[in-house]
Amino acid sequence: MNWEILGIWLGALVTLCLYSFLYRDNPFYKFAEHLFVGMSAGYWVIYTIENVLKPNWWQQMFPEGGGFNWVWVIPGIFALFMLARIIPKIAGLSRMALGMIIGAGAGLNMVAFFQTNAMAQVKGTILSLSSGGVWDIFSNIVLVVGVVSGLVYFFFSKAHTGIFGKAANVGITILMIAFGASFGYTIMARISLLIGRCQFLLEDWLPTIPRLLGLGG
Amino acid sequence: MRLVIPLAITFVTGMIMVLHFFVPHQPIKFLGDNLQEWYMIVASAAIFLGALNLMHVHLRKIKLKLKNWKYSPITIIGFLLMLVTGLIYGVTEGKPFDFMFMNLVAPMGATMFSLLAFFVASAAFRAFRASNWRATLLLTAAFIVMLGQVPIGAMIWDKIPLAKVWLMSIPNTAGQRAVMIGAAMGVVSTSLRMIFGIERSYLGGTD
Fold this sequence. Notes:
By secondary structure, chain A is mainly α. In chain A, 76% of the residues lie in helices and 0% in strands. In chain B, 79% of the residues lie in helices and 0% in strands. Chains A and B meet through helix 1, helix 2, helix 3, helix 4 and helix 5 of A and helix 1, helix 2, helix 3, helix 4 and helix 5 of B.
């Protein structure tokens, strides 16, 4: 048995263990579920060390040319403060680290979200309602009316009555179509993953069985 | 008093990041650039905190023999396997860490997400009812998008894939944009509340 076949068998076994949940909760599923949780946690810890801590902290603190950059001790101390949460006596120190993360995150996200999720989306909605074919004009009208009425629906500071209420009703309609389309798209994404797993079992794993039993292949 | 220093840190770091965007000159630029990296480093400690907490929870389950405690060693062994192989052999292609990721973690992740197809479909079957015309619109939109994604849709009627593209690019974009713009306003207001110390529930205090 080589490493490739061992890998295929491991993948197939955990896949079958997880799919056994479709029958009902059972020890095989629980085994694979617990293994997945543990291995994923281990993966993310190593990923963080390799992709965040080594390049952004360690290599900055100890540059390649030699020397020691003491400024980078500060984020290290804050990171230790975060871990202090597991020791009840000094758990209060974690508030310092939380304060820093929340403050920097809020400041960073505030301008980034405003630029990408507000201004860029508004800019993308300023469309010509006169150029292009009839279908293009109709589509642009639906887009502009949909965005404006959707925003009206989300505006709760004014009662949804009169013209405002009618606009909000149009907004709900557009949102229902959008949620339906997103739902269908999500289902299909999951189905494609399911097809991928079935292909793996049928095309990669099953052919290894005759090979292992010495029946050719 | 216990909240004053964290709130001061939140205010100073938040203001530096906001100023960094509007004033790209020294010394704000230097402070903002460094703070962005510091933010990543400190935030990454949360991953370690989560991993330690996971180990603590499962060790406690084993110690007290709580429900399903027999599976807890599997979680601990899985975690240690990835951690030790990653630390000792590295993460490059062909190493044990990569082997376990490609043959265990990735297949289990894909299988878990594909399982959701069954549960979402089952939940939708039970929850969705064409009770009014808007619910019918939602169902119809979902049905057209699903049909438009697969070859059978075009076999039934060649306009179905086009309808799917239109649904995704026009009404869906309009709805998502409205949600995104609304969410962005929410992020801006919540961020301001946090920076100015009005919202402080994240520190364990009262709002």
